[in-house]
Records
---
Amino acid sequence: MHKEMILRNCILSVRIVCLFLLYSQHCYADIYTTAVQLSRVSIATPTTIVKTDGKRIRVDISRIPVGTVDTLSALCPVSPTPGLSRNAALRIRHVIPKNGLLIGSEPVEIISSSSHQPSSYGFTTDYFTSFSWGAEDCFSVGTFTYPQSSVFWPPTVVEAQLPESITPGHYQGKLQFRAGLGISLFTSPLTGQQADLPSFTQILASAGEVTIPFPVEVKNSCKFSNSGITLDHGTITYDEAIDNIASATTSLICDYSAGVAKVEIKSAGVTGVKTADGIDIPLSNGWISTLSVEGPSGQHGSSIEIDTSSTPNPMLRFKSTLRSTKDSVLGPFAGSAVAVVTML
């Protein structure tokens, strides 16, 4: 008797995802400014986390530890009045220029800054505090500590898009901004004698440039042209099912045509077994699918490596080969796996 098994809706789903490199590093900076009223800023070691995702970079600067102090040595902007003490309202302004992020010597336009507001110049943030001193002591203001001892208030996350001219490699990154001090003086009690708060232009002109360095590695990032592919074996007989092959193609699209990409198939939710032909994925109803990926040069298996500098945007073929076991039974079946691409 001829044995026949009808298999319906035999679909093997392959979900494709990409892994991206996260790169972390610590940095420090001593900041000197040339502002008339702000002579020096000392910054303790901040933690800087740099993440590159293809052509996008994210610089996360955490809160500065306790100990950040400004030394103010400004002349009193108004004439001292004998016997009258003074209070000063301070405005500290930080400005990050639009191109204040450097990767090597290449300026990178900043898209956003979490703690700064967009302006025509770039991104700015202000906060206020106050101090007081004696009537005759207008030449030595003293020291002032930032709120929460943090130059970045709140912690700053800067995002930017890397230009085409920046290729994969190791770079010295720099985040540049300006720290300016606006000061508004008034008497206590108020007698009508009051200085105007310097304009934004004045603050910016007198502010010193601050640079926070950090190392960064720009790596090639690749993705598949399809978010997922389906390997459909269709409706087949038992005889046709043995060693039946279903395949589909997708392209590997990389940000840069440089570097070696590794494409690997991994099991999802089940235990796969790697073989010389690929990786065996158990399916429902006792069947096995041997999944493999084939590259443009004929290389194949559960994982392959491709030199994207010699083969940009290579075409890949994913293949499913059905295998029976002693537990194979009639009926539909399905399974899934994940294809992962990493840059070596």
Note: Helices lie at 200-206, 238-241.
---
Amino acid sequence: QKVAIDGDTIAIAAENEGNTGDGEDDGPGAVYVFRTNDGGATYDELEKVTALDAAASDWFGTSVAIEGGTLVAGARGDDDAGSESGSAYVFALLAELTPEPTPKPGEPTPRPVPAPTPRPVPAPTPRPLAAAPQPTPRPAPSPTPRPTPMPTQLVATVVNDASELRSAVNDASTTKVALGDNIDLGDDPVDVTSDLVVDGQGFDVTGSFAVQGAALSLRNVKLTSSSGRRRALAPGSARRALAAQENGGCLAVENGALTVTDVTFDGCEASNNGGAIHAVDAEVTVVSSTFVDCSLVYPNDAEKEDKKSWLGGGAIYAAGDASTLTVRDSTFTRCTAPDGEGNGGAIVAAEVRDVEITGSRVGECSCGEHGGAFYLDGESGSRTLSIRDTDFDQNGDQNDQKMRNVITIRGFEHVELVGITAKDNSNGGGNEASAVIEFTEFDKNFCASPGDGQCECCDGLYLWSAS
């Protein structure tokens, strides 16, 4: 059939779409997807769907079916497996995810206001009134019903292995991909150079993505570094530079944007910066995600001696004047940066524009130098750091418990710490900025080596040059 309907969604096939107009039926074909939100009175075009390997006379759309979240289109003229062998293409309809808005830095966290206790009001004594003519009541006009807005859906190409994923990403017309199985990418990262949405649909990916000058949105997937290469590489000159530095165990992004939602990073590793994520001059947003056992590791002692200039970031490393880092409702557990020069067991933000961390938990994270949990450096310019409603529990260091603090903050023009709970951490937090601290609790934090010049005064919170 050429038309398929499922609820409020309709798919219409146009198997000769794109023909040359010379009288030959040689179009590759297409399928148009529409949706109604007013009971069928009107339809809006959702997407024009074509085959990834479209070719003349494929007649993509010979038949079409749609049910639930799946769209299937037949192409009777496709000859990849022989003359007119035909093919069937499977696509997924994805619901667009939009994170709940959170207060911007500088705005107070809304708190419930108790309702006032109602007081009984004495009823007035009725007085007799003279009868008066009553106006004829007019019925109130009924409001014009408005159609209920429907969630935006995306038509996505379903991929089941590394080859299909690379082919889909390399096709410039592909903007949405859905996984149909677990995928092992091997040691070679997937290069993303145009905007892309990847819905993991709960499957696992072993390997890495490199984003250059584009926006990548990842959701509902579990990521693990490949065993052969603990890094992600960006294309071109950036790819070569990152190859030497070994940055980003699963994701590397440069001059672009990265959004991860409901993503689990499990055992991601790199040997320089960013065990899971490495971002340079990029906008990074992490929502409802989990980082477990992400770390920076040295392959051998010789390489350890050579690496004296990196900053760290066991889970996330973000740097550059154009970078912003937003983390919401996420968890960091046992993330580490090694001893020696290692900073930021969970996160390093170096010379970034703004940092916002909200509703998250950091537990059992450690490093060898500064910031067992976070190392946050605003360094130059006017920058804002906001950490709200976030718990720090049992974070420490690896260097004989002589690390200076669990949270290192410096260089930001304005710092907000609101609703913070810090418990059972070794050594305190350092801050060099103007600070607003509200609804914050410190419990059973300690300085491991008092009097050694390292942490003699920072077992709870250490403020340096702050106002």
Note: The domain at 153-463 is CATH 2.160.20 (Pectate Lyase C-like).
---
Amino acid sequence: MTSKASKPSQLDPSALGTKEYWDNLYNREISNHALDATDVGTIWFDDSSAEDKVVDFLNGEVFEKDLLGLGKGKRRRDYGLLDLGTGNGHFLVRLREGEEDSDEDEAEEEEEEEGRENEETGKKWVGRMMGVDYSERSIEFAKRIAKDKLESREEQGSEQGNEIEFITWDIMKEDPSPKVLNGEQAKGWDIVLDKGTFDAISLSEEVDANGKRIFEGYKEKVLALVRTGGVAVVTSCNWTEEELIEWFVGKGEEQGERFEVLRKIEYRSFSFGGVKGQTKVVLRATARGVWFKHERRLQTRRGYRLALTAKIIIED
């Protein structure tokens, strides 16, 4: 009988793991925005162009390949996005505004859309979007940024509204249903985004009822938010690739709901709270009859296993 593998060394708690820190930060950013409407506050991991990379990744690998198993068709309007620790909400606003297509992209889309009206403009995600954060001040700021950025676009209209939902919600303490898991997303979201939220929670000194640091239960919280076949993108700079695999995958011996490694993508290093890192993880939830990158399909009497699993893309 083998002993249970130990987890990576934990990070020392710091102010960045407290709600007070983030409330104070967004209070300052709200004040700055009131003086200068063009000041949208902190763009996460801006020194490494992390936002650009994730936008390109969502529009490329995730949209073109990883969401095909959902069977929703190849339209961005069909997918719902949930942003954990949304901060100023800028990332969702950027996805809503869309990226301009090249002439080649437009030609390909016109060919694919032959016989029906093109329902998208550029690489615009127009499906349901929700940003959540445990800081009320974050949500207030995100709503202001979204209003300023998208107000001029409302006149263009959309069958699936332009409005982005911003909700105060604590992933570690509150039940996701019905506040976050509701409507078409009652069984999970197609894409779940984490831009340093795991990092921040890892710096919290809070413990759960069993005396464990609360971040140790984060994996299960995120998994519950991703629908079968969906994708979760987690960006971290506090943990190495090996450590993230330990926290989100372990040794791969777990039964039932679990995560699996999918692929690696090179990523430039950046810093967070004085700590350098360069890791990005994408979790892909898969289930019966769905393609597995590593061909780890387990046969049962009824075919493929029904237990929810997930894939992880490590970017470093």
Note: The radius of gyration is 20 Å.
